[in-house]
Design goal:
CATH class: Mainly Alpha
Cofactor: heme
Number of domains: 1
Structural class: alpha+beta
CATH topology: Cytochrome p450
Family: Belongs to the cytochrome P450 family.
Pfam families: p450
GO molecular function: heme binding; iron ion binding; monooxygenase activity; oxidoreductase activity, acting on paired donors, with incorporation or reduction of molecular oxygen
Protein name: Cytochrome P450
Largest sheet: 5 strands, mixed
Strand order of the largest sheet: 1-2-8-5-3
Number of strands: 12
Radius of gyration: 25 Å
CATH superfamily: Cytochrome P450
């Protein structure tokens, strides 16, 4: 009896202590002099956000943070379960956290569910000290080799078959259902083919076979990467130990299938390299393993197999979904703004004419296409450059990775104390949709990147690829892929709005901004060359095809 009473007293004391800790924790925002949405014990602001989602629908999610900025100011505090973060759209504070005080904010902001394998030691999430003693800086130095100009030129050679397949599929679909199609799904299949070829050296042809495990599992993974679709995901926010049940979620099961395939491919490649079998066109895995061998030669510890797998997975998912989303958004915006599309087509046609291939050198120098790529803004301020920059500003695919965790207490903004463990987040969409940062932010105005000095890729207000030393390592690959694919598509087709899907609605997941329903419909119309039109007027088939690349 006494023993049971003592146990009860002990448990009660733990509960009371936990409640007092929680009350103290919820006072942190006030102590830091910040405002924010109403909080509840143990769940922070989650009920507040959930209520908005229920009342206004999930399509309202991209606008919630912007509304909070309007209500509480450019810098406010937010509680997500047991995590407190400072949310800011202030360019000066963003630059301070991500650049000038980077040493104090090295680690990325991580959801509890991601603090386990396979994401924990991938470049997207790994901190200054990894699980196996290798932190983000060393991993990035290995991964960066993949994205040199020499490596990308070799990878570009792998694109041609995948793009030919895409054009064939789109051409066939143009001839049915009046050309209406889910262009997002087509781009997803094609980018999966590209990443499989460049990362794994495999030709899987998802564009023609949607039953492929890589494609189906990747779609399942991203379709379920939402709080509301996973109880374990939600529980891990409040009780971190639940993160170890990640593999039992719908996205975790899909993830595991791909992880096992990646692990087997890496093991096989390691054996091949040990036997002296080296590929003429190295893929991502080859390049990572080659850099790992150099580490050993230089007396450094080799990357653990799990670290290699984690980073192959990180590159795999990043290269698949973000580019397909960007291409889909660009297609929609070009359909909505046909005058921009016409100028783009004129430049592409004048550059490539009837050439058989879209080569790396010319596609990366397209003065108008350059607008469509973020990093080309460093050397060009052409109109084409502005189109892509504006597409990614208008519909940023990645919304949640631009956040850092304080590893050494400091002060930001001249007055805001940031304790160790507190995160600072720059909400990408809210920053780029802020009227203080961009004039008429909800209008598609590519010219802003030509005429407005504030609209610069160097600016702390333009964040589709992040900012600072931990910005997107694969941005140049994304640029190359985006430009090559879009040039091929615009070369062959006119993109029009689907009358049944005039307005595009997006939803904000835990990482990505995606089209609502994971679909984006447009209408494609095949282009005709002048020679074809002349022959057709005579009742003949010219046999000329301007779409072969």
């Amino acid at each position: 009896m006494i023993g049971a009473l003592l146990v009860a007293v002990f448990i009660l004391s733990l509960i009371i202590n936990r409640i007092f800790d929680e009350i103290k924790f919820l006072k942190l925002r006030e102590e830091l002099g910040l405002r924010g949405p109403p909080t509840d014990l143990f769940i922070g602001n989650c009920r507040y956000f959930y209520k908005i989602a229920i009342e206004r629908g999930i399509e309202a999610s991209p606008y919630i943070c912007a509304e909070l900025v309007h209500k509480f100011g450019s810098t406010f505090g937010s509680y997500i379960g047991r995590e407190f973060e400072i949310v800011t759209t202030d360019p000066a504070i963003i630059k301070e956290v991500f650049i000038s005080q980077f040493r104090n904010f090295v680690d990325r902001r991580r959801l509890s569910i991601n603090r386990t394998y396979p994401t924990l030691d991938g470049l997207l999430q790994v901190g200054h000290k990894g699980t196996y003693g290798v932190g983000w800086k060393e991993i990035r130095s290995v991964i960066s080799v993949i994205f040199t100009s020499a490596s990308m030129k070799k990878m570009h050679l792998m694109f041609h078959d995948q793009i030919d397949n895409l054009i064939d599929v789109l051409r066939n679909k143009c001839r049915i259902n009046n050309g209406k199609m889910d262009i997002y799904g087509e781009y997803q299949a094609m980018t999966m083919d590209m990443i499989a070829r460049c990362a794994l050296g495999q030709n899987i042809s998802c564009i023609k076979d949607r039953n492929n495990d890589y494609y189906s599992c990747a779609r399942t993974f991203f379709a379920n990467l939402y709080f509301e679709k996973s109880l374990i995901f939600r529980l891990a926010i409040f009780i971190p130990i639940f993160r170890h049940l990640r593999q039992f979620t719908n996205f975790g099961r899909a993830e595991k299938i791909i992880i096992n395939k990646l692990s087997a491919s890496i093991r096989e490649r390691e054996r091949d390299r040990a036997d002296g079998i080296i590929r003429k066109l190295p893929d991502v895995i080859d390049l990572i393993l080659a850099e790992n061998e150099k580490r050993v030669e230089n007396g450094k510890i080799p990357l653990h197999h799990d670290v290699v797998v984690s980073n192959a997975w990180a590159l795999f998912i990043a290269g698949y979904e973000t580019t397909s989303s960007a291409l889909a958004y660009a297609s929609y915006l070009l359909a909505k703004h046909p005058e921009v599309q016409a100028t783009l087509h004129e430049e592409i046609h004048s550059t490539f004419g009837d050439a058989d291939t879209i080569d790396y050198e010319r596609v990366m120098r397209l003065p108008y296409m350059v607008i469509l790529t973020h990093f080309s803004i460093f050397t060009s301020r052409s109109f084409q450059h502005a189109v892509f920059c504006e597409t990614l500003r208008f519909y940023p695919p990645v919304t949640s990775l631009t956040g850092r965790t304080c590893i050494k207490e400091t002060v930001i903004g001249g007055k805001i104390r940031v304790p160790v463990g507190v995160g600072v987040v720059a909400p990408v969409h809210a920053v780029m949709w802020n009227e203080e940062n961009f004039v008429r932010p909800r209008e598609f105005i590519p010219e802003r990147f030509l005429n407005d000095k504030r609209a610069s890729a160097w600016s702390a207000t333009y964040l589709p690829f992040g900012i600072g030393p931990r910005n997107c390592v694969g941005a140049r690959f994304a640029e190359m892929e985006f430009k090559t694919v879009l040039a091929a598509v615009i070369r062959c087709f006119v993109i029009e709005l689907d009358p049944d899907h005039i307005e595009l609605h997006t939803v904000m997941g835990n990482v990505l901004q995606s089209p609502k329903g994971n679909q984006l419909f447009v209408r494609l119309v095949e282009r005709r060359t002048g020679a074809e039109e002349e022959w057709e007027s005579l009742g003949a088939d010219s046999g000329i095809d301007d779409c072969e690349i």
